[in-house]
Write a structure and sequence with these properties.
The protein is built from 19 helices and two strands. With 429 residues, the protein is mainly alpha-helical. A two-stranded antiparallel sheet has the order 1-2. A hairpin with a 2-residue loop joins strand 1 and strand 2.
Length: 429
């Protein structure tokens, strides 16, 4: 006979927090190359497209893992899934840190992306079993906040560490920390409170988004039968792709080259963009629920982003204060992408809500996966032959051509939103 006493909240949040630590590492790894562009290009002799591809290897495997992750979470349970994920992420970071050439570096990034892809679903599984229903939404919101804090650490703090010790030793320490998190998860985390003698919350959650249909592929085929799903799959890549392509890779070299910023200041500006994004997400989610509409806020956010990025990238020699203000504005309005998850859930049958959210998440990650190497390719096409310390230097027109891909996708996203069907925060089917 199982206990009827629920676990202490302190214990529940500690167990969830270990999963969150792995999620923080995932976000940190996602944008870390952005402050090491010169070092990576110098060490491996990379062109811009090769650097974009190196960073994007993370997203190649991350996107590929979105479908099997739900099945693995159900079959193995979050403890084993998160432990294995963190262990493989640690091995991938070691491979990246010790890479003798770009092939090994790509392999390390591939391992990291595929392994950290399990973190979010694993966290939601833990929340559904360990936390009361009234705190489930809080845990979901805290997840994005924790993740962006990991990305912020990959800004100025990482840049200072790389300046002091070099990128390879810093990545080695990152690998050791990741492996330590794997050990902590295996030692302390349990799939369900029953494993520690407490009552479970698993059956009190009316809508556990981590449940996966019996046939995942059949579920995906079915959700794509609804027009909104297609549109909401294609739209968020423009938003997140723009943020992570700038803040996660090309922003620092652009700001240091064309605004004369120190690398730490450029990293700080990119971190300000990410922090504003973290604040904008829950704000747009709350506003959308409060107003009872999805489409207008989603469209407004994309319109402001298009105007903001256009000003940042096309207007010459902006005052630094205005440039940073525009980055913060764009970051905040990029939080509108969070609306897409609720929008998609309401556009498909209730039993496929989790599948619809997973499809949107794949669309989210398609953005940086395509834009990071795409911008790099455009930079190489417009390179004028200038070199500095063995690294290619790209002119303003080259950056404008590359970042033009971001503007084009955002313009397309604006057009696609017009064809979505408003749900009024209720299921259409």
């Amino acid at each position: 006979m199982h206990s009827t006493t629920y676990p202490p909240l302190r214990l529940s949040w500690m167990i969830w927090g270990l999963g969150a630590m792995f999620y923080v590492i995932g976000f940190y790894q996602r944008v870390a190359p952005g402050v090491m562009t010169v070092e990576l290009m110098s060490d491996f002799g990379l062109t811009a497209v090769a650097l974009g591809n190196l960073s994007a290897f993370y997203f190649y495997s991350y996107v590929a893992m979105q479908i099997p992750t739900g099945l693995l979470a159900d079959h193995w349970g979050p403890r084993r899934l998160l432990t294995l994920g963190a262990a493989v992420a640690g091995l991938g970071t070691f491979a990246f840190a010790l890479a003798p050439d770009v092939g090994w570096a790509n392999f390390g990034r591939l391992l990291i992306g595929g392994s950290v892809a399990v973190a979010f679903v694993g966290m939601l599984k833990l929340a559904a079993h360990w936390l009361p229903p009234r705190q489930y939404a809080l845990a979901s919101g805290m997840a994005l906040f924790c993740g962006v804090m990991g990305a912020v650490f990959a800004g100025v703090p990482l840049r200072l560490l790389v300046d002091a010790f070099g990128w390879r030793p810093v990545m080695m320490v990152s690998a050791v920390v990741t492996c330590a998190v794997a050990v902590g998860i295996w030692w302390l985390v349990r799939d369900d409170p029953k494993d520690k003698g407490y009552a479970t919350y698993a059956f009190t959650h009316a809508d556990d988004d981590t449940r996966i249909p019996h046939s995942v592929l059949a579920g995906i085929r079915e959700v794509f039968c609804y027009r909104n799903t297609w549109l909401l799959y294609l739209i968020p890549g423009a938003v997140v792709g723009s943020v992570l392509t700038f803040a996660g890779l090309w922003g620092v070299p652009y700001l240091t080259t064309h605004y004369g910023m120190e690398k730490t200041m450029a990293a700080a500006a990119c971190s300000a963009l990410l922090i504003a994004w973290a604040v904008g997400g829950p704000t747009f989610g709350w506003l959308s629920d409060h107003l009872g509409h999805r489409k207008p806020l989603y469209a407004l956010g994309c319109l402001v982003q298009l105007a903001g990025w256009g000003a940042i990238l096309l207007l010459p020699a902006l005052p630094i204060w205005l440039l940073v203000l525009l980055l913060i504005l764009v970051g905040f309005f990029s939080g509108n992408m969070i609306i897409g998850f609720a929008f998609a859930k309401e556009s498909a049958p209730a039993q496929l809500a989790g599948t619809a959210a997973g499809v949107v998440n794949m669309g989210v990650m398609m953005g940086p996966m395509l834009l990071q190497p795409g911008v790099g390719w455009m930079l190489d096409q417009h390179w004028q032959g200038e070199m500095a310390e063995g690294v290619r230097v790209y002119g303003l027109e080259a950056y404008r051509s590359g970042f033009g891909l971001m503007l084009a996708w955002l313009a397309l996203a604006m057009l696609l939103i017009l064809f979505t069907r408003e749900t009024h925060c209720k299921h259409l089917t």
